[in-house]
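Exercise: predict the fold of this chain.
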Amino acid sequence: MKQLKMLLDEMHQYVQAFNRNNQILNDNWQDKKSEQFSSTCVTVVNNTCQEYMQTVEQVQTGINSSLEQLKSMEQELSKELSAPEWAYKG
């Protein structure tokens, strides 16, 4: 899971660089085509990347939660298995 976090952090950095570079281009290329390019391409790519990263982060949170539940269940089972046999006979 640490590797997934590292990859997401890296993707965040790439998206920020993408936005900075496109802002520089847009500032230097001000006409109707630049507005159209920004709205139909840059914004779409940025939004898609943001949505993807949010989805992956949510999935990662869910996986981490499931892992914690499984660890807790494993500990409970270990306690049950290590309990003396007479404890089961009631």
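Check your answer against the key: The chain has a mean pLDDT of 88.
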